[in-house]
Amino acid sequence: MTNETSRTWWQQEIFYQIYPASFKDSNNDGIGDLPGITVELPKLKELGVTTIWLSPVYKSPMVDNGYDIADYQAIDPRFGTMADFDQLMATAKDLGIKVVMDLVVNHTSDQHRWFQAALKDPASPYRDFYIFRQGHDGQPPNNWRSNFGAGSSWTAVPGEPNTYYHHVFSPQQPDLNWENPKLRKAIYSMINWWLAKGLAGFRVDAITFIKKDQDFASITLDGSDGLGKVKRKTENRPGLDQFLKELNAATFKPANAVTIGEASGVAYDQLGDFIGENGYFSMIFDFHYADIDVASGSEWFKQTNWTPKMLGEAIAKSQLAIQKVGWGANFLENHDQPRSLSKYIREPQYRNAIGAKALALLYFGLRGCPFIYQGQELGMVNAVRTNIDQYNDLSAHDNYRRALAEGYSEDVALTSVNRRSRDNARTPYPWDDSQNGGFNAGHEPWLPLAKQAAGVNWQAEHDDPNSVWTFYQTLCRLRNASPLRADLIEGDFAPLDAHNDNVIAYARGQHVQIFVNLSSKSAAVDLPAGHVWLNNYPDVGTSLQPYQAILIEVK
């Protein structure tokens, strides 16, 4: 059996995440849509993408931008119709592109018919599809703080004194009760319905939250609001494994589907259970190094003073832990993260093509599947806002209020939100330099475009052989079809000591070595002899220039 045939199919994929509302607006209503995605698929094919991941397009009131689902088997009208979805699937198939969708099954929208039925009648069978509990002396059942909303994870049920429902996230996102086998069966049926439509798999949202400690006991306070983090009783808790094993056996495994778990709270010594040979998922995202800039991924106002050495060590620790048991999902950006140029490149003068290419090579060469988030391949930066009211993001408002409550000034609170808000990655995609960046024909977009440097748009970069987009295209070609393919896909990861704290270096397999200077200072490095396949500077010298990144094939 050859290496090509022995690889699991999804290990060879290059994923591209699309945030539909901000990708392409085909009908000029200010919101991106499915027909807009369909018409631009050939450009993703040209880039080298093999699988697209669609953020939610299900019917939703959009309290959390589609992660509050009102109907799992309907397309939200703002994105189009089910016929539009089917056309997207057909076009993608013709282009050889697979499609993955977001799967959100920790919670639904409060507008879902299940929840509405549960509210209407306490005796309804749907009551047990969710988590309802009695309060204590007019107070919620416990002191858990929700991840969103700067308040309790319990909301009072209208018209039912002393009755509350639970939500890890916003009050408009009631948690499903996975303890109920009827609920689980309904979820599995829905998943299999989508797989039968031809989906290649799912990115599985917030999946480590589906198991709650059934004592629902209060916890130690950790803030001035008298509450404690809900995740301490709801994230990766004992018993989760039984749900995930059943989920996989009933849906993903029979379909040979790819699954990418958003599995926060998973320790490295648990990775075998999640992504091992008999793991629950194909791969999971590791947020340990993605959140290196903050003390907590949900408390942006607590910044850290990270260094390139710390980042390199975190990446190596992640890669080595994953390599022992399974496969990785490597990313710089997604719909919940800020733009990587703004996060990892501290000097504004290098938040340009040089910095973007350095970051691209740093992560694209890692062992596992690379995930590109829309606009990342252009080198987009954060969108700076001057007032909290300019933010659409729920968690931006939550973090701003939390920061003020913890005693931070308005300026510090807003600065932390500007650095970290999810709106940073959700601004419309700039296709060209026309009105609204070619996102549509002129209607005001649902979210203002982020101000970018001249030439940061698809058209300009597509036509420029030295652009960030072209650099990403080259990275895709090296992985998809080049003499380095075997090393880049299945070669082991091994950290290299570049003898400079600002340089992150590693080897892949027998022939690939990558060196990235993640600072504004030159770095003397003893580079190996070999063929330079990629370099974000014109030349290679005895020192790496500021933010220089090089891929060398060692003979």
TrEMBL record:
UniProt keyword Nucleotidyltransferase, yes or no: no
One Pfam short name: Alpha-amylase
Enzyme class at the top of the EC tree: hydrolase
Domain called Glycosyl hydrolase family 13 catalytic: residue spans: 17-426
E.C. number: 3.2.1.10
CDD domains with a match to the protein in the record: AmyAc_SI_OligoGlu_DGase
GO biological process, one term: oligosaccharide catabolic process
Gene3D superfamilies attached to this UniProt entry: Glycosidases, Oligo-1,6-glucosidase, Domain 2
Lineage top rank: taxon: Bacteria
GO molecular function: alpha-amylase activity; oligo-1,6-glucosidase activity
Keywords: Glycosidase, Hydrolase
Sequence similarity: Belongs to the glycosyl hydrolase 13 family.
Name of the protein in question: Oligo-1,6-glucosidase
UniProt organism field: Lacticaseibacillus paracasei
